[in-house]
Amino acid sequence: MGLSLAKYRSSLKKDLPAGLVVFLVALPLCLGIALASGAPAFSGLITGIIGGLVVALLSGSALSVSGPAAGLTIIVLNGITTLGSFEAFLLAVVLAGVFQIILGYAKAGIIGLFFPSSVIRGMLAAIGLTLILKQIPHFLGADKDFFGDMNFFQPDGETTFTEIFKAFGNIQMGSLIIGVVSLAIILIWDSARLKRYTFFRLVPSALIAVIVSIVLGSLFANTPTLNITSEHLVNLPVIQSVDDLLRELTFPDLSQFTNINVYLVAITIAIVASLETLLSVEAVDKLDPQKRITPANRELKAQGVGNILSGLLGGLPMTAVIVRSSANLNAGGQTRVSAMVHSVFLLLSILFLANILNQIPLSALAAVLLVVGFKLTKPALYKGQFRLGKEQFIPFFVTIIAILFSDLLKGIGIGMVIAVFYILRANYRSPYFFKKEKYAEKEIIRLKLSEHVSFLNKASIVLTLDHIPANSHVVIDGTHSEVIDHDVLEAIQEFRTKAYEKNIKLELLNVPAVEIVAAH
């Protein structure tokens, strides 16, 4: 425990500013997603606070940040309509949390291992592109849709692209100036030349951009052509007393406990939220420079506890969220402390800072997300994926296009269909098997790979490697393998980088080295 505390203390100088950046990103997203879901704005903030303080504490993930997810807005909106009240829906959120805990104990987290790397990277790149496209109208001060909308078809009848064209015809000059200044501050502040100085490393660029944006906004207030209207500013509920706080809280309607529709909504939330969480933590693990692995079943249990508390206190269902997690990583977050710090700031903002934060222009926050989006979808990612061949690039690219023109889960589903097509085609040409041999007298564990090792073997190989005891001598033999899928090679290489931690001696026989494509 002493070493663990020392590790957290040493990381605090990076986790604190990272938590502040995540807070600035999460604040408008929590409010926007709640309003888009047909729920009280306060419910989104409750979800963000619990996601950081409770889920981060219970989760085994170092970098993922949980909160309300744009992918659940339709489910929440339909759930409230079906059940007839927000209070009845809150009971469904509580039950969804119970179901997630059951899934965790049933070890359903293994599902995440069945998604190919090409699809996961496509998801990251698509989210980056979507972030950029969705922020352009806010950056120009011409979008009234909720901040955090990620769907191609928008509530106002526009699409991602038509909204951009419309925005260029309705530019609000004050917002545009603030957006450009904020973006310039972030890019200059984060440049390699300035990062050599301690001050620029410790103080997050997003904070400086937000402070400058508030100052500029106040200067523009008396100029009609530059004045930024309230719909393009952060809009926090103002809490001035304990009574105000209690009035904002909503509690579940326990009388709906026998309503079968409550259970149907709860099961839907549990399945979709769990799947989105597993995909998010898998993606964040690929982004993590330290290559830490999130225990998937523990994550499901943590999300379940979070959703139970969120439902009891009037919050929305939550998931691990890529946008906030990526902002955390890009801001230098090292441990789960950064996620907890972001929740503390959310709590303080509700209690003490609403009047100040309500002066932040959305165009300044759009500038922060433009940078986050670009880091998720850098050209180097496309080049690296292209070099791996069409079997990796086509599912990657199809996933991007599908997410861009639909939503996250539909796009991933389409990407999976294409990936499975290539897997089945490869397996049709050459059958495969996976065999483990243990020679007790020599204390050697020999993993003999078959003639063709596809992505379908990845889950069993990863589980086998994860359960190899410390101080073992392991031989992975690919002598008779004609083809070893890139995802399997990646899993073996990742095991190789971690083997020394368990004092495992590893020998690779005819297992080729692989280029692990950086996702950021």
Automatic annotation (TrEMBL):
Q: Which domain of life is it from?
A: Bacteria
- Where does the record place the SLC26A/SulP transporter domain? 12-394
Which keywords label this protein? Membrane, Transmembrane, Transmembrane helix
Q: Which InterPro entries match?
A: SLC26A/SulP_dom, SLC26A/SulP_fam
> Matching Pfam families, A to Z?
Sulfate_transp (PF00916)
Membrane topology per the record?
Multi-pass membrane protein
Localization: Membrane
According to the record, the segments passing through the membrane are 20-42, 49-76, 88-106, 113-133, 171-190, 202-221, 260-284, 305-323, 343-372, 393-424
Signal peptide span: none
Show the PANTHER family listed in the entry: SULFATE TRANSPORTER
Protein name per Swiss-Prot or TrEMBL: SulP family inorganic anion transporter
